[in-house]
Amino acid sequence: MTADLSIAHPSLHADSGFWNDPYPFYDKLRSIDPVYKGTVLKYPGWYVTGYKEAAAILKDIRFKNRIPLPEASTKYQNLSHIQHDMLLFKNQSDHKRMRMLIGKEFTAKTAESLRPCIKETVHDLLDQVQIKKTADLVSEFAFPLASLIIAEILGVPKEERYQFRQWTADVIQAIDLTRSRKTLVRASDTAGRLTSYFRDLIHKREAHPQQDLISRFIMEEQLSKEEVLATCILLVIAGHETTVNLISNGVFTLLKHPEQLSALRENPSLIETAVEECLRYDSPAQLTARTASEDCEINGKTIKKGEQVYILLGAANRDPSIFDQPHKMDIQRKPNPHLAFGRNAHFCIGSSLARIEAQIAILTLFERMPKLRLAAHRLEYRKLIGFRSLKELPVVIG
Ligand code: HEM
């Protein structure tokens, strides 16, 4: 057991297996209370594992979106600065305005128009993987795919995108409950680098506009310069982290469920429901946080003004009151109203893009590599509570 992963309750201790499989712990938590008040790591708050309660809070505008950073410290200045102008942490009218302007660039139709570019990128990457005997599908496939596509959309030069892997990992670490002062300082330093990188790129695009998203954002009168900057950083982080997890967790889960994989191989048109099930079964983003702006009653409990709420999306997606046999992976599951992309006002803007990328990546991989198998059966996840992120996905090409 990791002492620091206990919630203040005698029967609630996550053991060291938590990082590989957090779901038994979430079941235990939900069975005690789907809206549980306690402290995880050093963070006191309400931990929500019930689906109905999670959905109710996501819908309730009295709960505001923000990352609570340690206050009054100049050490985290860069981090709080970029957070201040990010869509994800805006509320009400500012959120509506930014969401409308950014959202029109991420419609289902726009994502659909990227299909040929995604297909070509998937094939190029698999050409490299296929000539090898073994490969790590996180670093050699899922990550470069997500990275190349978001770089293409934004207009980040391909040769400059390599630095984003570490930068994204640093920022993700800082918004996770597992963060330490050290990771926060490092992330704030990284936020400074991201800021100067994008300030530079924005200057270049101001001087010489291109056919890319950054140039279009710059021309948008209703977006301030700081908002353009924060949006580029948010998109680059969102585009690099979660889609990688969806593809790699999805491939790993299918390889561990050969009967499901055979059904998909026999009937590739199941790819859409299969990706929805991957999103539910091992949700790439596992947690989102809110702060109550006034006293609110949820499930008979009063969440007081200023209290922090942690919505465990991955736990809500395994709630037996909504999903029949929630721990069963079923690529034909219907309906599948998972909360993997959140819900309501902050519902993921990149959901169509992520879905198409994952559908093409997973299907093409299994079509091109019929003998693909895992090179190890127990894989390690990064020690994050907010994200389900494999460190590596070693496979034998066969
Ligand atoms: C499998 C991939 C993805 C997952 C699981 C995911 C998950 C999420 C979730 C859960 C939220 C809501 C957070 C909240 O309510 O606090 C969110 C919001 C957001 N996502 Fe994604 N995301 C994914 C891919 C992407 C991609 C590819 C992009 C951009 C290219 C993106 C951009 C955003 C943005 C900008 C928001 C903020 C929306 C707002 O606040 O109005 N996401 N995402």
TrEMBL record:
Gene3D superfamilies: Cytochrome P450. CDD domains: CYP164-like. It comes from the Bacteria. GO terms for molecular function: heme binding; iron ion binding; monooxygenase activity; oxidoreductase activity, acting on paired donors, with incorporation or reduction of molecular oxygen. Keywords: Heme, Iron, Metal-binding, Monooxygenase, Oxidoreductase. InterPro entries: Cyt_P450, Cyt_P450_B, Cyt_P450_sf. Belongs to the cytochrome P450 family. PANTHER family: BIOTIN BIOSYNTHESIS CYTOCHROME P450, P450, PUTATIVE (EUROFUNG)-RELATED. This is Cytochrome P450. It comes from Bacillus velezensis (strain DSM 23117 / BGSC 10A6 / LMG 26770 / FZB42) (Bacillus amyloliquefaciens subsp. plantarum).
